[in-house]
Amino acid sequence: MDALQAMLTRKSIKKYKPDPLPQELIDQIIQAGLNAPSGLNKQAPIIVAVTNKEVRDQLSKLNAGKDPFFRTDPFYGAPVVLVVLADKSVPTYVYDGSLVMENLQLAAHALGLGACWIHRAKETFETEEGKAILKSLGIEGEYEGIGNCILGYPDQDPDKKPRKENRVYYIK
Question: Which residue segment(s) compose the domain that 58 sits in?
C-alpha cells in the first residue's frame, strides 16, 4: 500500500481479535513511529511497547480511571499497546509525539492491521502506578504520555466516516 492510499483509507478500529501479533510486524510499526519528523530533529518521543497481557491489562485499568465512559476495556481488546511519551523539556514534544502516533497508525494500516489512538496516556503516567512502570523500565526524566496506539488484527470493518466539507481556504 502506498503512503497516500494508507492516509486516505485508514480507519480507527475498536474491536480486535485476541491473536498475538508477530514481533516483526510490531517492530516495523515502531520503526515507522521512530522515523516521524520532530522539531529541530530533537526526537523527544519514546515508545513503550506492551505485549505482556498483565501489564496491558494494568494500563487498561489505569487508563479507564474514573471515566464513566469506560465501563469496559478502553483498549477494545487489542493485544498490543504502543505508549508514546515525550520529553517535556523539548518545546515541540506534544507535536512530535503526535506525529509518532500518526506514523504508528498509518504503518499498522499499511501492514493490514488495525490501530486506534487512545487518549489518557498523560493521566495514566501521572499516577503513582504509571510512574512505577516507567521507573521499572529505567525511564527517567520528565516524560509526558502523548497517546496509546492500540494494535491488533481487526475484528470489524467499520464504515469510513464522512469528512466535513469546506475545510480548505485557498489564497491565490
Answer: 29-152
* Residue 3, in any domain of the structure: no
pTM summary value: 0.94
Query: Could you read off the pLDDT of 138-167 as tens digits, one per residue?
Result: 999 999 999 999 999 999 998 888 999 999
For 74-120, give the DSSP string: TTTT-SEEEEEEEETTSTTHHHHHHHHHHHHHHHHHHTT-EEEEE--
Domain at 75, CATH number: 3.40.109.10
- Residue 70: the pLDDT is 65
Cell of 162: 464522512
One-letter amino acid of 128: E
The number of distinct structural domains making up the chain is 1
The C-alpha cell 513503550 sits at 48
Contact 49, 80 (CB under 8 A): yes
